Amino acid sequence: MIDNVTTGYLTRAEIWLFITTLTYFLMNGAQVFETLVFVPRWTNDAPHNFKLLLDGHGASLKNFWIVFHAVHEVTFLLAIIFCWKIALVRNWLLILFTAHVAVRVWTLAYFAPNIIDFQQIATMPAASDNLAARTARWQTLNYIRVAIFIAISFGLIPLCIKVLQLRP
Predict the structure, then answer these.
(1) Which value, in Å, is the radius of gyration of the alpha carbons in the chain?
(2) Which of 8, 102, 114, 122 is 20 to 30 Å from 60 by CA-CA measure?
(3) What is the pLDDT of residue 57?
(4) Torsion sign across C-alpha atoms 62, 65, 71, 73
(5) What are the angstrom distances between the C-alpha of 32 and each of 11, 49, 51, 60, 154?
(6) What is the overall mean pLDDT for the chain?
């Protein structure tokens, strides 16, 4: 299960696993806030409230999420690297990271293009078929996406406990 693990190695594993877990929970806090406070505002009365999505006119969160996800994914990879010799922890981290990447791909394939489309509608209002249905579907799927991210972050907690239990 553990090959040639020193106290220093274990300390680095604990630190990076804790940092990625903390970062994930901070990210989830921002996602929950956005989902419960901001998303209902811009999805209500579409396309009128789409202006809230525009840079300089509302609460553009694009740069925030790009930076936050980049930092988190680096910390997640560092946790995997520094927990590599701890097979059980490494394997679960790889599973959780795969789930995380799958949700990120879903975000880039579905959520981001729709937000960009909604922003374009805000700048050049045009007739859009089923706009209310599209925003409602986006909002519903976003609840699922956030729930998956939260589940992944909770999956990190037993790994933190496991690494702490390895201390001599």
Answers:
(1) 19
(2) 102
(3) 55
(4) negative
(5) 31, 20, 21, 16, 15
(6) 90
The CA-CA-CA angle for residues 159, 164, 165, to 5°, reads: 95
Task: Name the residue type at position 115.
Answer: I
What is the rounded average pLDDT of the residues 66-93? Answer: 95
What value does the mean pLDDT take over residues 36-58? 80
Return the SS3 of 43.
helix
Separation of alpha carbons 52 and 164, rounded Å: 44
Q: Helix H segments across the chain? A: 7-33, 39-43, 62-82, 87-106, 112-123, 131-165
Q: Is 82 exposed, middle or buried (0-12, 13-18, 19+ CB in 10 A)?
A: buried
CA distance 137 to 98: 25
DSSP assigned state of 52: G
Crossing angle for the helix pair 131-165 and 112-123, nearest 10 degrees?
140
Write down the pLDDT at residue 46: 78
- Average pLDDT in the 116-129 region? 78
How many residues are listed for the chain in this entry? 168
What are the residues whose beta carbons fall under 8 Å from the beta carbon of 44, sequence distance 6 or more? Answer: none
Look up residue 78 and give its two tokens. Answer: 């560092």
Q: Position of tokens 């989830």? A: 28
* Lowest-confidence region among 22-36, 60-74, 75-89: 60-74
